[in-house]
């Protein structure tokens, strides 16, 4: 009985889907600067793209995993009142060209994922996974994943599942989404082509900041070495998981100068100053992360990476604010009270007008300008901000160990 009901319901849905697909036949959809056509043309389009890009060693697609520094709207689709959200004013107040568009980015405009994507010669960041999934039996998800990539990042996410539980999509769940997306891609164009596509794509990762914040209020495990070991073990699992899926080029942004965000300054032992203890916690993690990546590169054939020093970049920028054109590096532009850090960025709060001169947009997140400056540094900036190569070199790296195109 139950089976009969299910299958007749499914039949009805298939008809509906077919009608919709027919109505978009011939329509060409602009996706992040790359053209996606309908399913019939899709294989051809992908082949053509691979042909064009092969000799130039240009990255094909961009896949993003991480936290609010990279989220482009996944959290808009989560339920629950405690979910971290940026889908209200004054987020997006400078989102060009429309302005006043709160997309879910934790910024007054674009974020680091957008700027890295632009640097890679594409449009803004690929769309948020949850904005794609489910539509037309995942048709949109698979097409987008093949042509431009997908962004799985989620505000509040940590390396540990226990970080901000129930308020975000933790790294382990982002990995599951990546895996099922890959399976759907392989079902469409075949496993070998996805393997080739992944090897020539850029995997941008930025996570760990929220695990540091979490440790301030709940230092578990109390032994810092054990805390690092759990973080590094789990991060290693995620990165090797991506490698096993075919990923070869990893752009990894380390944990930032988390003790200097306005919220942490407000609650630091000397209010107004950076929380040095928290910064030391982050610096220790970053050392372990650098060692992890170097170790993976030794062990895994074809594994290429660039670790971007978000921490060191902020340290230098905050030591000489004027050099970056900043008039403020300690106060949230959008917020309330002391340091703009006593309240959230939300309608009715204070919003500064000199948004190109502030390091922080809200009490935790960098301004659009801060995002652009750091993305510029990671991509092709001064050598001290990336190791062992910069993002541009990673993107164009010709690796003999990359699997050969077989299609
Ligand atoms: C869409 O993809 C997600 C995973 O990416 C999967 O969980 C879901 O079952 C898929 N839905 C359909 C209709 O294929
Ligand atoms: C992370 O590491 C800890 C300790 O090793 C473990 O208990 C936990 O299940 C791991 N996974 C995640 C996703 O947090």
Compact summary:
One of its GO terms (biological process) is lipid catabolic process. With about 400 residues, this protein is α/β, with parallel strands linked by helices.
Supply the key terms:
two-stranded antiparallel ribbon; GDSL esterase/lipase; SGNH_plant_lipase-like; alpha/beta; Rossmann fold; GDSL_Est/Lipase; 43% helix; lipid metabolism; six-stranded mixed β-sheet; 407 residues; hydrolase activity, acting on ester bonds; 14 helices; binds 2-acetamido-2-deoxy-beta-D-glucopyranose
Describe the structure.
The N and C termini lie far apart (45 Å). The relative contact order is 0.12. With 407 residues, this protein is α/β, with parallel strands linked by helices. It has helices at 2-24, 39-54, 112-119, 129-132, 139-147, 171-189, 191-199, 209-217, 224-245, 262-266, 276-299, 310-319, 368-380, 391-396; strands at residues 29-31, 34-36, 62-66, 149-151, 202-206, 249-253, 304-308, 328-332, 334-335, 350-351, 358-360, 386-387. The protein is 43% helix and 11% strand. The strands form four sheets. The protein has a six-stranded mixed beta sheet with strand order 4-3-5-6-7-12. It has a two-stranded antiparallel sheet with strand order 1-2. The chain has a single domain, classed as SGNH hydrolase (Rossmann fold). Mean pLDDT is 87; it is low at 1-40 and 400-407. The protein is built from 14 helices and twelve strands. It is globular, with a radius of gyration of 21 Å. Bound molecules: 2-acetamido-2-deoxy-beta-D-glucopyranose (2 copies). Residues 160-161, 172, 230, 233-234 line the site of one 2-acetamido-2-deoxy-beta-D-glucopyranose.
């Amino acid at each position: 009985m139950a089976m009969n009901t299910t299958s007749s319901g499914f039949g009805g849905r298939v008809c509906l889907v077919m009608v919709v697909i027919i109505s978009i036949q011939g329509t060409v959809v602009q996706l992040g600067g790359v053209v996606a056509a309908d399913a019939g043309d899709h294989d051809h389009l992908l082949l053509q793209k691979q042909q064009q890009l092969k000799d130039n060693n240009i990255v094909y697609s961009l896949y993003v995993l991480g936290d609010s520094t990279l989220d482009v709207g996944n959290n808009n689709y989560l339920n629950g009142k405690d979910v971290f959200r940026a889908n209200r004013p004054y987020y997006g107040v400078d989102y060009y060209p429309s302005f006043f568009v709160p997309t879910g980015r934790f910024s007054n405009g674009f974020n680091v994922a957008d700027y890295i994507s632009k640097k890679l010669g594409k449009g803004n960041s690929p769309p948020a996974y949850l904005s794609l999934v489910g539509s037309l039996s995942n048709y949109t998800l698979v097409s987008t994943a093949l042509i431009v990539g997908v962004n799985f990042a989620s505000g509040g996410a940590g390396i540990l599942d226990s970080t901000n539980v129930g308020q975000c999509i933790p790294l382990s769940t982002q990995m599951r989404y990546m895996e099922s997306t890959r399976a759907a891609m392989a079902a469409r164009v075949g496993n070998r082509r996805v393997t080739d596509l992944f090897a020539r794509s850029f995997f941008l990762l930025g996570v760990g900041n929220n695990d540091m914040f979490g440790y301030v209020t709940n230092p578990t495990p109390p032994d810092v070495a054990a805390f690092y070991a759990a973080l590094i073990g789990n991060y290693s699992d995620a990165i090797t998981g991506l490698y096993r899926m075919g990923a070869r080029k990893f752009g990894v942004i380390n944990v930032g100068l988390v003790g200097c965000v306005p919220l942490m300054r407000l609650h630091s032992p000397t209010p107004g100053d950076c929380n040095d203890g928290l910064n030391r916690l982050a610096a220790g993690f970053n050392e372990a992360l650098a060692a992890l990546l170097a170790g993976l590169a030794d062990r895994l054939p074809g594994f290429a990476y660039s670790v971007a020093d978000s921490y060191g970049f902020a340290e230098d920028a905050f030591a000489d604010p004027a050099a970056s054109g900043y008039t403020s590096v300690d106060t949230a532009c959008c917020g309330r009270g002391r340091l703009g850090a006593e309240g959230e960025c939300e309608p009715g709060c204070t919003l500064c007008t000199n948004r190109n001169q502030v390091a922080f947009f809200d009490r935790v997140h960098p301004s659009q300008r801060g995002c652009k400056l750091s993305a510029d540094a990671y991509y092709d900036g001064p050598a001290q901000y990336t190791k062992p190569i910069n993002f541009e070199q990673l993107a164009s790296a010709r690796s003999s160990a990359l699997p050969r195109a077989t299609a």
